[in-house]
């Protein structure tokens, strides 16, 4: 278990948030799946709660306006020392900014952007809220991965905007690389070519840690979610892809301790 209360270096994934149509049902689902509890957060964009584990904030859930039929998806937020400057850099490098920059009360300043391929991400300039307060435990975010058509061109965008260096994963079968800050891995990019789902397009995938992936997948189904990709053993342990009742996809990955 790691408490993470310090302000993050620019480019570090520091928060994940989900905008949904039914906040009560969504809280029930994730509360039962991960043991989350909830408390109100800033409501500049509408009703919003923060999910807690052991009293530490690990994720956010907000309410979509009734007239907004947007895709329901988990969105990672990348740390910034200046959200306005980062948003301008996003635009300059071929991305778009759809929301903000704007203040989220005393918590900080944020924007929502997308890369040149259309994958959506957030920008977070911390003030009172520095981001995720706990990692390394079941129910907390374990990793963030960009799923896109090919890695080379889109990686240049993230390098230019956030200062990442890249570490290629040498494989004849996979197009993937790791994004690093000061030689520390912070996220990954996977190019899947024509295997990219047409109904989703390029997107960021959030991985949540669980003690037992197979048991958690069963629980997802019992709670009204669905299995997108069944549990399997990968390079970083056992993993599965699932969706909540509103269709937001996320991955489940085994805790390092439970993985052996």
Characterize the structure shown:
This protein has 260 residues and is an alpha+beta fold. Helix content is 17%, strand content 44%. The chain contains 4 helices and 18 strands. The two termini are 16 Å apart. The mean pLDDT is 92.
Spatial arrangement of strands, main beta sheet: 3-4-5-2-6-9-8-7
Q: Total number of β-strand segments?
A: 18
**pLDDT under 50 segments (min length 5)?**
none
Supply Rg: 17 Å
The helical percent reads 10-25%
Spell out the blueprint of helices and strands.
Layout: E1 2-3, E2 13-20, H1 23-34, E3 37-40, E4 48-53, E5 56-63, E6 74-79, H2 83-92, E7 96-103, E8 108-114, E9 120-126, E10 134-135, E11 141-148, H3 151-162, E12 165-168, E13 175-181, E14 184-191, E15 203-210, H4 213-222, E16 226-234, E17 237-243, E18 249-254
Parallel strand pairs: 2-5, 6-9, 11-14, 15-18
Antiparallel strand pairs: 1-10, 2-6, 3-4, 4-5, 7-8, 8-9, 11-15, 12-13, 13-14, 16-17, 17-18
């Amino acid at each position: 278990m790691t408490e993470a209360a310090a302000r993050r270096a620019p480019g570090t994934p520091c928060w994940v948030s989900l905008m949904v149509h039914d906040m009560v049902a969504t809280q029930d689902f994730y509360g039962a799946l991960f043991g989350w509890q909830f408390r109100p957060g800033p409501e500049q964009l509408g009703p919003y709660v923060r999910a807690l584990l052991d009293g530490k904030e690990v994720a956010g859930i907000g309410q979509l306006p009734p007239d907004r039929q947007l895709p329901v998806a988990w969105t990672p937020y990348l740390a910034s020392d200046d959200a306005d400057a980062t948003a301008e850099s996003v635009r300059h490098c071929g991305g778009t900014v759809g929301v903000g920059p704007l203040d989220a009360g005393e918590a900080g300043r944020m924007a929502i952007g997308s890369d040149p391929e259309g994958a959506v991400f957030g920008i977070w300039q911390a003030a009172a809220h520095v981001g995720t307060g706990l990692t390394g435990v079941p129910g907390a975010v374990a990793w963030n991965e960009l799923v896109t058509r090919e890695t080379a061109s889109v990686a240049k965008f993230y390098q230019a905007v956030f200062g990442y260096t890249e570490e290629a994963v040498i494989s004849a079968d996979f197009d993937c690389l790791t994004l690093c800050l000061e030689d520390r891995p912070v996220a990954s990019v996977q190019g899947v070519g024509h295997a990219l789902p047409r109904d989703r397009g390029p997107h960021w995938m959030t991985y949540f840690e669980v003690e037992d992936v197979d048991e958690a997948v069963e629980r997802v189904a019992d709670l009204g979610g669905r299995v997108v990709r069944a549990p399997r053993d990968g390079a970083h342990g056992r993993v599965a892809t699932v969706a909540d009742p509103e269709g937001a996809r996320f991955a489940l990955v085994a805790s390092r301790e439970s993985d052996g």
